[in-house]
Amino acid sequence: MDRLFVKTKQLISAVLPYTKESNLIGCLKSPTTAEQSEQYWELMDYRIELDKKAEQNKKMLDHTNLFADDESRPSLEECKVQILKHLQVAFCFLNLF
Questions:
Q1: 25 touches 77 (CB < 8 A)
Q2: Do the beta carbons of residue 12 and residue 19 sit within 8 Å?
Q3: What is the pLDDT of residues 68-95, one digit of tens each?
Q4: Whole-model pTM above 0.85?
Q5: CA 81 from chain center: how many Å?
């Protein structure tokens, strides 16, 4: 559950800057525009470059790769879907207790 929580926070931080909705569910349910998607990929490319620089210089602070455990880089729309799934799992888990 802790890992799910951390991964969901990371995904939300990757998605929120590219939406204009006033709440999280509105953000996740809104259609992804081409412009939002382009800005998202630019940030993902930038994060990959930061990860490479961090790997090259072991003296840097520990840097967490957002998608290190994913097989591929998810799109903005895929991130939204994944966040919604994580929230459903967390909600079901919390209702059990």
A1: no
A2: no
A3: 556 677 889 999 999 999 998 888 877 7
A4: no
A5: 10
What does the alpha-carbon distance between residue 65 and residue 76 come to, in Å, rounded to a whole number? 16
Scan for tokens 């909600």, then name that residue. 91
C-alpha to C-alpha distance for 71 and 28, rounded to whole angstroms: 22
Q: Are 63 and 50 a contacting pair, CB within 8 Å?
A: yes
Of the chain, the end-to-end C-alpha distance in Å amounts to 13
Cβ partners under 8 Å of residue 73, min gap 6: 44, 67
Nearest to 10 by CA among 64, 53, 62, 57: 64
Positive/negative CA dihedral, 72, 58, 42, 77: positive
Domain boundary assignment for the chain:
2-96
| pLDDT for res 60 | 47
